[in-house]
Amino acid sequence: MLKFLIILTINTLLINISFADSLNELYDCSWDNRSNTPCLEISKNLSNSSKFSKTGINKIVISKEEIDRSGAVDVIDLLKNIPDINITQSGPKGQQASIFSRGTGSNHTIVMINGVPINDQSTTQGLHDFGVDFIQTIHQIEIYPGSSATHFGTNSIGGAINIILTGDFKDNFKVNTDKNANYELALNKNYIYDNSSLNMKFGSVKNKTISARGNSDDEKDGLENYSVNINYEKFLRDNNRLYNTTYIRQTVAAYDNSSTNQTGYEGDNKFGSFQIGLEKKDKTKKKNYIIYYNIYDREYDERGTIDTYESEVIGIKYDFSNILNNSFSYGLGSEYKYDWGYFDNRGSYQASTKGNSNNFSLYGNAGINLGNNFTFSLFTRSDIHKQTGLNSTYKVNLDKRFENFNFGTAFMTGLRNPTLYEMFGTDNFGYSGNRDLKPEKSNTAEIYSNISVNENLNFKARAFRSNIENNIEYINNKYSNDNDDVNLNQSGINFLIGLKTDDISANISSSFLSTKKENGSSQTRRPKKTHSLNLYKTLNNKIFGNYNINLSYKHYGKHYDVHSSTFNTIEMDSTDILDLIITKKINQTNYFLKVSNLLDESYQRPHGYNQENRIIKFGFKY
């Protein structure tokens, strides 16, 4: 309570501080002809959508401006304040990290780059490791809470996260460091021609702060990350665009085997993605063709014992949308992807897998404007999987908009197909894969509302209830579908208050979550209550002139976890994490000072894995 009062006092003081009339804007652009720097609207394809069906899509966007304001280092820094998302990481930056979206499992969120799925099929359960993703080449992040199967396919029971790499047309160079010589480096360069553009980005991060499982006197677990992104587009005609994205990332991180066994362990995580597409559009129709290829190559060195994990996927995708008239729009498309991969774990625990699967999908949607700002949306998708066969998902949505608020309701289904390991894997304790597994399936109902009090203040609320059936469990040395007719159940509600004026931008959110196992007990690592605040404000001082301040606060409530040594279920205390970044612009350079974990909170999440204490960094962006 004391920490909360301190934070509330700081926010109150900031909101009431007097400030200058002129703003020190992060970007010098405006939507008028007086600006020398044009503004660009970045609009990305959303699978299985059309003009009137988009009103029913739950979408949160973290823009480039918000990324820069936050002072984020990795993707986790950006996602931690999103309602309905909870994160755990096995130590400091670079360590394995998982997210739990709306109380579902860490393998129930699909992750994409520019709309293309990138989940690693060489992992045991097909989850994505967020601990190795850094933001130096990222332009925007889109979050789709709730089942998104009709748009993006399997693995999206809990939600979807789309990382946008394209669209950053402003040249810049950014670097920062701290007292321990850790650094972050980012470079963005564009070449613009009459009918084409080339965008090249490079990022690098070095970080060594604490020991993942030791104490303050132990060796520190560090990381080095490198990322390269090249985006090219060419307009063949006014409405025909050829585009390509290439992304390569490597993260090398030391980790601890236990609190008494810390040295000699290192993970080398490499990833590459290649996409080439053709977009055709006019006033009413839009077509998009894309071919993609992703590859993972991971190695873990455990004191000379090398575990290897590799996976690849190749796919082709087609999307079409059409506005038929002022009342009806529709879309359709298809996707084919082929996954193959293997891993070989050679330590005291020996496990391996080798296999492949493919999936072909057909999908469509319809949006109907019923008049008086009342719309009805229908989405359907059918996936034909090599092992599980034909499975269909759907979503229906009703949305009514009034002058100052809207109200809507939706019902949607989702599924997760079994992974390669669950179907084909083996280990030295007698496990063998199960090719007869059925997909996990979910049902979700939700209601939502958005109230605009005035042009500066709005209020959003969304409530949901969902369940997962056929959940895949490890029983008697084998993965099997649960068949006791008892589902995993999740429900929750979140609130968001947004304030935006010429001088201040603030978002306050609260989430209340209930997620139950089959026996009715709460699932681990999902707090019932989380609260967050993000405040951005321009201030004025007689000595320093205009400068910007960004304050980010997250309350992560009490929750259950598994003890790292006894494996008993224990209750973990809540945490209050406050980050502060101060920015001052001089000519074309933004200088900034960032303090992470300002209150110097000492905590573990999950149990047994230390999180970083207070860190002070300074740098600039030109």
Quick tags:
single chain; globular; mainly beta; five-stranded mixed β-sheet; Maltoporin, Chain A; 5 helices; 622 residues; 34 strands
CATH class: Mainly Beta
Counted up, domains total 1
Terminal residue distance: 40 Å
Strand segment tally: 34
Biggest sheet descriptor: 22 strands, antiparallel, barrel
CATH architecture: Beta Barrel
Principal-axes shape call: globular
**Could you name the CATH homologous superfamily?**
TonB-dependent receptor, beta-barrel domain
DSSP strand (E) fraction? over 45%
Under CATH, the topology is which? Maltoporin, Chain A
Range of helix content: under 10%
The unreliable regions are 1-42
Tally of contiguous helical segments? 5
Q: How confident overall, as mean pLDDT?
A: 90
Radius of gyration: 24 Å
Structural class given helices, strands, pairing?
mainly beta
Q: What does this 3D model show about the protein?
A:
- With 622 residues, this protein is mostly beta strands.
- The chain has a single domain, classed as Maltoporin, Chain A (Beta Barrel), CATH 2.40.170.20.
- It is built from 5 helices and 34 strands.
- It has a 22-stranded antiparallel barrel. It has a 5-stranded mixed sheet with strand order 1-6-7-4-5. It has a two-stranded antiparallel ribbon with strand order 2-3.
- The N terminus is likely disordered.
